[in-house]
TrEMBL record:
Species assigned in the record: Allocoleopsis franciscana PCC 7113
SUPFAM superfamilies listed in its UniProt record: NAD(P)-binding Rossmann-fold domains
PANTHER family from the UniProt entry: NAD(P)-BINDING DOMAIN-CONTAINING PROTEIN-RELATED, PROTEIN YEEZ
Listed InterPro entries: Epimerase_deHydtase, NAD(P)-bd_dom_sf, NAD(P)-dependent_oxidoreduct
GO molecular function, one term: aldehyde dehydrogenase (NAD+) activity
Source taxon at top rank: Bacteria
Phylogenetic placement of the source organism: Bacteria, Bacillati, Cyanobacteriota, Cyanophyceae, Coleofasciculales
GO terms under cellular component: cytoplasm
Pfam families in UniProt: Epimerase (PF01370)
Domain NAD-dependent epimerase/dehydratase: 3-226
Protein name per the record: Nucleoside-diphosphate-sugar epimerase
Length: 323
């Protein structure tokens, strides 16, 4: 099987490349000239260089390809380049779908997000849920929703595309929560915000397994939520503490966190700096709650993820053994 992975150097993309190569697939990776390729060390994939919206590069990358996995995305909260995010997440997705349709690939798997459901206000939802939130919580929220609409449009036109909707993606090399976890393991994380915040979790390798299963088994146009379950930040740190013996970080009072967000947000905009806390991040910590049920992926695809607790314990063990 010949397979293209967009964003092949990214967190999810690099894990996917390794899993595909272990299967014996021939892998092509679309990356930017400026991409850090450290995550692909030891891989044998063919690299095609180009922006995600560069149709010529996409045509080259899709030559003779059976499957396309679209994982490339601009993922960030807080102070972001909204125009760049629009270009990558929306225009880039449109370009991938158009070129895949013209190339006649047999299956496209799109890595979406449970965020397309909007704020479910704590309600546990499945793939049939219709978004009720009228506005958007962030540029990321808006651009991924718009990208999903594009994918669904192409599916309705006959493109054999399947959407995978993961919750929070965790792993030892996770660029988002990974540095926080490393700081915790060193005993340097003394405080945390939003202990009641609920986070859905899936191990990156379980997400990759679901994407490959979707390519093999899923019917075109289907959506699959990919999550091992959810828990509060407080529960997460309790598991980590039990595993390591390191004390749970103290919780910063909500008014103090909100004040910090209000102060640092304009400073960050003025200095073009991404502060550790901003108004948008405060909103995600305290106000937005998306909860999901991944039963469909388990029953229809035969997906069998490790538990949330096992995911966290394995990451701790990997990081501890590497240090």
């Amino acid at each position: 099987m010949k397979v293209l992975v967009t964003g092949a150097n990214g967190f999810t993309g690099s894990h996917l490349v390794k899993a595909l190569e272990q299967r014996g697939d021939v892998v092509v990776g679309l990356v930017r000239q400026s991409s850090n390729l450290d995550g692909l060390s030891g891989c044998n994939l063919q690299l095609v260089y180009g922006d995600i919206s560069d149709r010529d590069a996409l045509k080259t990358a899709m030559t003779g390809v059976d499957w396309v996995f679209h994982t490339a995305a601009y993922v960030e909260l807080g102070l972001v380049d909204a125009a760049k995010m629009e270009r990558v997440n929306v225009a880039g997705t449109r370009a991938v779908m158009e070129v895949a349709q013209a190339a006649g690939v047999s299956k496209v798997v799109y890595c979406s997000t449970i965020g397309v459901f909007g704020d479910t206000q704590g309600q546990v939802v499945d793939e049939t849920f219709q978004r009720r939130q009228a506005d958007f919580s962030s540029a990321y929220d808006r651009t991924k929703y718009e990208a999903q609409q594009i994918v669904d449009h192409f599916a309705a036109q006959g493109l054999p595309v399947v959407s995978i909707l993961p919750s929070g993606i965790f792993g030892a090399d996770d660029p988002h929560f990974g540095p926080v976890l490393q700081q915790f393991l060193k005993g340097g994380l003394k405080v945390w915000a939003g202990g009641d915040r609920i986070t859905g979790i899936v191990h990156v390798d379980d997400l990759v397994a679901a994407m490959i299963l979707a390519a093999q088994k899923a019917q075109p146009g289907e959506h699959y939520i990919i999550s091992a379950g959810d828990l509060t930040t407080r529960e997460m740190f309790n598991i980590l503490s039990q595993e390591t013996g390191i004390p749970v970080p103290r919780e910063v009072p909500k008014p103090l966190v909100q004040l910090a967000g209000n102060i640092l947000d304009p400073i960050g905009r003025l200095l073009k700096w991404q502060p550790p806390i901003s108004r948008e991040r405060v909103h995600y910590i305290y106000d937005r709650c998306v909860r999901v049920d991944a039963t469909k992926a388990c029953t229809q695809l035969g997906w069998q993820p490790r538990s949330v607790a096992q995911t966290l314990k394995e990451i701790v063990q990997t990081l501890t053994s590497a240090s």
